[in-house]
Specification:
The complex is a heterodimer of chains A (678) and B (416).
Chain A: H1 2-10, H2 22-42, E1 46-47, E2 55-56, H3 63-68, H4 71-105, H5 108-119, H6 126-132, H7 134-137, H8 142-150, H9 164-189, H10 192-200, H11 205-234, H12 237-243, H13 250-258, H14 264-298, H15 300-324, H16 330-357, H17 375-380, H18 383-410, H19 415-419, H20 421-436, H21 447-480, H22 484-498, H23 501-515, H24 521-527, E3 528-529, E4 532-533, H25 534-559, H26 565-572, H27 577-606, H28 609-614, H29 622-629, H30 636-677
Antiparallel strand pairs in A: 1-2, 3-4
Helix pairs in contact in A: 1-27, 2-21, 2-23, 2-25, 4-5, 4-9, 4-11, 4-16, 6-16, 9-11, 9-12, 9-27, 10-11, 11-25, 13-14, 18-20, 21-25, 21-27, 21-29, 21-30, 22-25, 24-25, 25-27, 26-27, 27-30
Chain B: H1 12-19, H2 27-38, E1 60-62, E2 74-76, E3 81-86, H3 98-104, E4 107-112, H4 116-125, E5 134-135, H5 142-147, E6 181-194, H6 205-213, E7 220-222, H7 226-236, H8 246-260, E8 264-267, H9 272-277, E9 282-286, H10 287-299, E10 307-310, E11 316-324, H11 332-342, H12 345-355, H13 364-371, H14 385-389, E12 391-393, H15 400-415
Parallel strand pairs in B: 3-4, 3-5, 7-8, 7-9, 11-12
Antiparallel strand pairs in B: 1-2, 6-9, 6-10, 6-11
Helix pairs in contact in B: 6-7, 7-15, 8-15
The chains are: A mainly alpha (678), B alpha/beta (416).
Chain lengths: 678, 416
Amino acid sequence: MAGTVAGRSRRGVRAPRFALALPAIIWYALFFVVPIAYIIYYSFGTKDTSLLLPVDLTRLTTANYSQVFDATFFTVFKGTLRISVIATALCVIVGLPVAYFATFKVSERWRAVILALVVVPSFTSFLIRTVAWRIPLAPNGSLSRFLMDLGWVGENGIQVLETSVAVQIALVYNYLGFMILPLFVALDRIDTRMREASKDLGAGRVATFVSVTLPLAGPGIVAGVLLTFIPMCGDYVAATVLGGAKGNMIGALIASQFGGAQNWPLGSAMAVLMIVAVLLTLVVGAAVVWLVPRAFGLLAPVGERVRRAIHGRAIADGARGARTGRGAREPERLLLGVWTGCVLLFLFVPIILVFVHSFNRGQSFTIWSGHSSTKWWGELFDVGVAWSVLIRGALVIVGALVVRALLRRFTSLPARAVNWIGPVGFAVAVLLNWMLTDRYRDVFVFSGVGDAIRNSFIAASGATVIAVIIGGLAGVALARRPGSWTKAFMAVLFLILVTPEIMDAVALATWFPRFADFPLIGSIVTDGWGPFNGGINKLWVGQSLYASAVVTLIVRARLEGLDEALEEAAADLGATPSRAFRQVTLPLISSALVAGGLLSFTLCLDNAVISTLISEAGSTTFPVALLGATRSTIKPFWGVGAMILFVVTMAALWFVAVVLRRSGSTSSDIAATLTGGS
Amino acid sequence: MDKQIRILAPHSFREQLSRRAFLKAGTATAGLAVVLAACGNSDPASTDTSAPGASGGAEFTEIEGTATGDWSRKIAKAGGALAMYTWGDYNDPELVGALAESTLGVKMKVDFYPSNEDLITKLSTSNGQSGFDIVVPTGPYVPQMIEKGLLQKLNKDLLPNIVNLDSNYVGQPWDQNDEYVVCKDWGSAGFLYNTKKISRDLATWADFLDACQNEASGNCAVIDAPWDFCSPYFWSQGKSANTTDAADLDAAEKFLVDTLGQHIKAFDSYPSTKIAEGAYSIAVAWTGDARQAFSRIKDAKGNPEDWKWVLPGPKTQIFMDTYAIPAGAPNPEAAHAWINWELVPEVSIKDLAYHGYHTGMKNMEQLLKELAPDLPKPEMIFFSDEQVATMEAQEMNVALDRLVEILNKTKAKAGA
């Protein structure tokens, strides 16, 4: 993309302002706007299950809408709204101190560790982690018995499951990462000199936080709220697994129309209404956020007094702080640190439970039988093959390390080249095992789980690459080339975020057969391409929609407000737009791309609803398989599968991180030079 | 795809099917089959893919077995890949993995779906290109799938072991002449209750509904599916659960939404694990899941003796899942070979021991004794003829929309 832009501008023809967003525009038009338009069209049809697709479009009617306008829809929507608003608020309250601590209170190394720990738990199935919450909360569970012995809870045990509290816990748990990362990206962007200036001018910590940090973090908070609140409104997995009758959510109501009732017209009408209702809620929310400060503005004299009071105390604080030096900051830092520790523990509890319960000897994943056993690992793996894979892999990697050590000692090859031997050895080990075990199929006795893990991985990686590329370009375009196109594009982006997944799923599932008739690209998506079957390609499309919208928002939040001086300086120095993009913009947004990529990857890895409808024979992913398994008792080997998914994902991300670090140093060097020079 | 495909079946076709009683094999079946055939074309959906060419290619070999009696154990090698689309964890992993490869020479891959509707949507949106060779729809969904042309006819020459099935489980209302599907397994539903919390004896659906409003208020669970949720009310009133009568449906709505709704703790189709966790004191459950509840309770260090299983009167449900081959399946030959192998009694019982549902074999009581004597709670797998006579199957009729509405309204009420 950047290349064409450069080429055209050199010839003096200006590329349109939306040029960078063009891939995203085409992608969304093909796979979101048109398919969803069809579904909205369906909302005016009538149900007819004798048709191949159960909607009769010859008799158009608005009856579906009048049917939606009854008490059921609004009762359920009200409950959903209450749960989502509280959970979103909790995410801000819980997440902001963590992001603040990671950004300002720790060294760069610790910052990376904290952020990694925030994201790491999402590298295994979201569904199994949600199910895992049943373990500590069970009324007959060990924790409950312990608390009963202490007399802290009544004789019926902990009564949290099957209530909206359980749903709120699970929602906060599942979406916290989507709040913390955008907050961090926004806080990280804040020029620390502003905060220092504020303190130099006498403002205390609180005043600095309220009047400098918080407003500057605004876009991050907005992005975080959008990324948590909107999907929460459509989420029903948490409600289904933990909520019982009291945690009923609107997403489940809509899904039941597309599913059990096969009433697509009514389901479409409900979805359209839900989208409208969620957008209205956001508008009201935005209006409140906009109005409140202005309402305070009307009370300026009072506000002035308050500010002066804060200011006065701040000066006193500052003076004290100056006297006692760093010591005065310690309690605050300690408090934030403890808070962050607790939040990380909260994030890790389910994953630890998944690990422990994969060694459960009993038949059910959630119920600890009192005995540990590796029988479910044996059930899943061909132990002999698994060991030989591990040993073979270890031998190759150790061999690579030995070669690296020898080369370092006895040759004068450049260190940069020698350093590549480690990752290459890893890749060779992975590929070797891939070939010797029929794409790792032989490792698994129950090949279904193995296939599902491999498919999840291939689908999520591909979708993430797509999301990062089109989302990153669109984010840059939104921040740097705003224009008349921005509003329409943002509207589509919002719709992508707000559309319930089940509606996307049905829209895409019915769109692909039509799309197959498109020349060239049609067959790529539907029939397969290269080593990937059509099912995997469809998953790339389906999973990339939401993920790319997330990347776009994060990149935009990162660039917005960062002034364009750097790029202009590059241009003044004679850099072509493509070079400026590569060497200036890209390093600037690299943290946002990495954060967005991580979020996309976890989103895609967990995608169940869309994937269930569009996967084909041989492209079933882990969440799809697990969702199927929730129909009966979840056996502990799903925990084993989740752990394998976790380890494989971690290994892959470690590999990507190493490769990025090895190859990325040059561009950030240039950025650093430019920053210093400007 | 742009034009909608309307199936030219007489509209009365499904109603006629659905009015037929379930599991009344023998003369009644024959009689009604004749009536239906007389109504016109008994093959309403013509699929473009026909079963693989006559018995030609397949060569059968007879294998050994340990069960006594007269059984057919013919199997045919097939080869190639075999893709199965089924419910989660619904077959012994060896039978869809290593054993299938060593016995039949087919490499299987198994994918899962969470509901019949997902299966139907998948098959109907993929234009016969879904790539699956075997699917497992539930009985009442079969006519709809046939109508839509989603299934291909079975080649009976490739299924010699079908004679091992009990005559009660062939010729079902959804597929009179066994042209499209073969019984995989079947089960029923009842309820489980904690005798520590509910001391009186419960035996009927009326007892269940009463307990939910009293001792178990706020601690009862019901199945999260429209027909399964509403049917206990109709049975408690001595009605058919497939009623389409407006007054019956209104009464059901009034009772379920206004009276029962507030007492329900969860809409939970698989309560066994949560029963063991201590979440409910009474719950409706399908037999396979209810049977597992007892071992779950033991796992959780509870006392299984505290729990009582009831197959309630006056009527309760029966459901059957079936094997079928979708139109456009890439390897129908292997699909036939596998289904036929699954009908060998020893293989069938091995599978049964895994999933815990009656597989429709003849002489099931004797088979269980010979091949799986240690299987716990056989009375929750094998039902007497008297019990089976009280079971009613779901029918797809015009009331379904209303049942969905009732379920959704009840959920809104229970959650408020």
